Amino acid sequence: MSPDADHAVVLPSAAAGYEQPEPISVDTSQLAPEVYGVSDVSPDRGLESVVELLGGTCDARSRAIRLRGMPGAGIEAALRSLARAARINGLVPMAVSEMNEPVTALVGRRSLFLIARGHHLPAMKALAQLAVQTGKPHVVVLAGEGEVPGMPTVKLKRCPVEPLVEAVRPQCLKAGMRRRALAAARRSEGLPERFRDLLWGVSPAQEVKQYDVLRVAEQATVYGTTSEVTSTLTAGTRDRWPVSADVAALRRRLTEGVEELTRGRHAAGERRTRQVVAALARRQLWTDAARGGLALARALIKRGRLKEARTILDQSGQYARHEQASDVLIEAAIMTGVVAIDETRLDEAEATLHAAWVSARGLGEPASARSCALALARCLFWRARFDESLELLEPFDSSALPLGEAIQLEGARSRAAVGCGDLQAAIAHAGKASRLADRLDLPGGRAAAACASALAHLSVGDHPAVESDVRRCVGASKLAHDPLLGLRAALLGIESARRAYGHPSAAALMRKVRRIASSNLPPIVRARVTLTAGLLEGAASDLLARQMSATGLRALRLFAPTAPQRPTAHATTMDGLLEILDCCQSSEDDVGVLSTLCLRLRARLKAAGVAFFAEEGGAHVPLAWDGVRSEAALAARVSELGQTLVPHQSAERIEGGAPVRYGGQLVGTLVARWTVGATV
């Protein structure tokens, strides 16, 4: 009986269980060489960095990796090993060549491990397709011999002789077979597939292809009759080709419908666009139908009708998949991510937009990649990851971009700078956006620049400038038929009036906003309306905490005066040092201190693994670690160098370290590793 329970507990003995048959003994001395096999078991050949990605040691973002190997290097065996690791870690392995409508419907909203061979374009298009469908992070491995520009590459290493011999099954080799395996391993030069061929004398696949394939006499080709291919094409899905005049008329009507949406004639433009998109889809003009659907979804998003926009985006994604138009697939993924942001589904938005960004870079679509970066930067801003947002936008030069994109870029940089506490940079970027908007002279650009300026001026307490910016934004948003942008600026004006002039003036402005039914507003705007109304009623910290917890919009604290501002880089460093000192002083166990430090440093560094090493008996021994295990060789390098080793690419991973000193003496080393393709 268990002392802590009121029922009996049965403890089975070692002999309990299912009856096992007697083991079969095999006399390997009687086996012919053709009976032996070669397993895929081999030492690390550069795959460990990819397995770390699959093991969840990196952030939840899509990744694309190039797996290189010369002929005979065993790429297929490596892919099988990675597929097993993917299944263990909850990803569904799938070949890109097998992706079709029934398969993708069966997969549902799961994270996939996509395997592609040969050219990378089909894999990148499949990733864009999955970004629209799943909203989950995925891992893509492109197997081949060449490199893909801008994509991290993992090169398969050669295998030593002994592991190749030990991979032969059964392992109990007779003397003659062992000599044969050793000779084949030496001649194979570390290539597993060549080792198999040399071990058997000829590859089994080649043997079947050479001897077992029967050939029959070919039938003579008969000319002058309808071929099978022609009859199949005639009986295919497209029964008749649309007339060119009909297609031209539909495209002209689609252009007219989009222009009506742009001019603010929403009812007529929406009705015309829906009719033309349906007509184009019936004629199987999929790309034109998808572009029309995206234009309609864009208009619906501007008016806050997110559910209808998501339905249209799903249909447009299905249309785009028929002809694999890469730019349309990526645009559909971007707009899907924008809808997820407005619905405050930030996890899904980040996964979708990051997958679209990886796909756009792999497909060589710079304009689409910029659009992805702007949308992803907005998602990171609302998650209060302002430094990451600025880092994502840093490579772009606004002077080399079209004016519309440059205005969006400078506005996004201004908002992220406000979050980082760099108010001088925020004002500078907002001013640059306003100057670009004056050059563009379009109401949409002027409204976006004025809204960014209003937030920057609110952060520095320049309330007259905020009032002027809000007035300009509201007027321009009416001309641009973008009411939600004007409402966002009006909320900034109400908060500015509350801080500068008191409750009565702000309450008068708030009454105008309250006339809008909250059910007609997107959740992201509704959260701001709720926060502003609560501040007018006297609620502050409690309301802000509830709103951030309920919506996940951590950046809401920028719109509440009682919330602390984002600390500067110097203050952040000081907070980190104080946090480490507090950990050292409050813990009673030395190993516990080091383990806690590893945990916190790994989170700060966004690393795959962090570890402390100490030298003992001429060897470097790990004292504590968090995440993936680091190698003692890295600690030895840092110890021998005697100074900080900045993060750098080493083989297929990124690693770095620093010496730990006490009283001027080297007492240990701190090392860190990042996954392949990570940004450090």
What's the gist of this structure?
This protein has 680 residues and is an alpha/beta fold. The protein has helices spanning 48-54, 75-88, 101-107, 121-133, 161-166, 175-187, 192-200, 204-212, 228-234, 244-262, 266-282, 286-302, 306-323, 326-342, 346-363, 366-382, 386-393, 403-420, 423-440, 443-460, 463-479, 483-501, 503-514, 523-536, 541-551, 569-586, 590-605, 632-641; strands at 37-38, 63-68, 92-95, 112-117, 139-144, 153-155, 168-169, 609-616, 619-627, 645-650, 653-662, 665-674. Among the domains are: 384-566, Serine Threonine Protein Phosphatase 5, Tetratricopeptide repeat (Alpha Horseshoe), CATH 1.25.40; 575-674, GAF domain (Beta-Lactamase, 2-Layer Sandwich), CATH 3.30.450.40.
CATH architecture of the domain at 384-566: Alpha Horseshoe
Return the CATH topology of the domain at 384-566: Serine Threonine Protein Phosphatase 5, Tetratricopeptide repeat
Number of helices: 28
What summary fits the major beta sheet? 5 strands, parallel
**Helicity level, as a percent range?**
55-70%
Q: Structural class given helices, strands, pairing?
A: alpha/beta
Write the layout of secondary structure elements.
Layout lengths: L36 E2 L9 H7 L8 E6 L6 H14 L3 E4 L5 H7 L4 E6 L3 H13 L5 E6 L8 E3 L5 H6 L1 E2 L5 H13 L4 H9 L3 H9 L15 H7 L9 H19 L3 H17 L3 H17 L3 H18 L2 H17 L3 H18 L2 H17 L3 H8 L9 H18 L2 H18 L2 H18 L2 H17 L3 H19 L1 H12 L8 H14 L4 H11 L17 H18 L3 H16 L3 E8 L2 E9 L4 H10 L3 E6 L2 E10 L2 E10 L6
Parallel strand pairs: 2-5, 2-6, 3-4, 4-5
Antiparallel strand pairs: 1-7, 8-9, 8-12, 10-11, 11-12
